């Protein structure tokens, strides 16, 4: 069960409303030229909206709808010519019996040939406004080519040159030579006559994947569109991410000013071309939950199943007022699917479970959501294929993958601990879940007590003082994102996480080159010895490959942070310093470790020892910033003073 990531005419996002609005706008004034933009981030559903627009005009003989994918034509030839010729060729293919339009068709193709011959003759620069070369430009090319006959060795063959010159000269007959505005107007009139003779009341060109093109291709396509902007009965619908087009404008016109008045030039360029912009909104929590349910149910039941189509219809009703609804429920699914409702149970459970965090983490992007689900399903299949599928449940895997994707630091911290635990659990994670559950219960009890005391006129109950906890747990509890994730069902207390970590090895191996820590367990233990003893292990540490060094660092760091005692230097810090000295690639991880130390509890040791191993410029900057921050502390005089001295003596690390 893998979810296809292609444009579709089946609307699971309620984007049909956008497509219908665009169709109505195009039908209002078919004689009037218009350019419409369908904007949205990568994966927002722009291509699907174009599919719906094309489908909406199917069967209407008066309207000709053509699709042009700039990305697919990239690299074949000039994008302007490709678009112009593609439009005319598409017209001929879809209206083959155009006997009345034969003359107009020949005129248009002659003008296209004129442009193609001119380009082949010398790769001449076309004007930025129209894409049509001026007669003066072609005359210059002819003169250059004729002069080349003096040294034919520089050219391919004389025959080729003669053919090119004759072709260009044929474009410069005195009776036909016009200035640029006249040529533009002549092309538009010829194209307009072609549409009339072909019996086409409106031509709609759908431009897709423009934001995937290289900057030059994107701009050339937009310039070709400008050629048609004032041509009657012609409409363009351009699907593109505005940010990518603005980037293309800046790259293609590097010498232009950044702004023109109060507006950015790149934004002005796009807005002058796109007359009516539509932006596809990101999915909110309710839309995400419905989308996940529909995707998984469709994959299980079948996209074309009649009952599944009923479920889509029910979902669309919910999507009309998403602020009032909380997604699809079991009753709605049962009413739509009938006896097939059992196949959607997993879909409902997963959408309720992962919807809120997935909506926030994926920023409401449908493609990101679909990719997350595909990875989830593929990993479940992989576990089954490798023989430990019975040790994996989809809800637990989904919860861990939410952390892996959107809270990677939390995931790594828990993963490294669980990987070395004899039962594959992370005790700090279990403590977090337990404490959050207790806090929820105490808040409820406290609220009831406050209400009761208010009635009696007595003082409110004070919140209990939390017990001391290690730095990792404190870090997790201080993050709303981590706490929201920890509350997601199912809870992970008592669950062996090792099978789940093993199935995520496609990104990072938490088990090292051998099972669990293997020989690395001995390395970790050595780094907790005395300072003099630790120094003798430097040569051994240098032999570690990067993956092994990462694992050793995380094991040592986790053990240090788990001690919860920072007034004096914890065991293992000397080993951590030596490890980073032997493995300079760990400098960034060392800064991560220092930055989360509880500054109010740390002794002066936290300032010393790092300067000898932190040499990377970015890490030096981070360390200097951290010392500066510590030098301003008001609740830890010893650390404040030590940081001030370190900054004064060394002027930071250089």
Automatic annotation (TrEMBL):
InterPro entries: KAP_P-loop, NTPase_KAP_P-loop, P-loop_NTPase, QatA
Residue span, KAP NTPase domain: 16-382
Signal sequence segment: none
Domain of life where this protein originates: Bacteria
Region listing for Disordered, in residue ranges: 438-461
One Pfam family of this chain: KAP_NTPase
NCBIfam families found in the cross-reference section: QatA
Protein name: KAP NTPase domain-containing protein
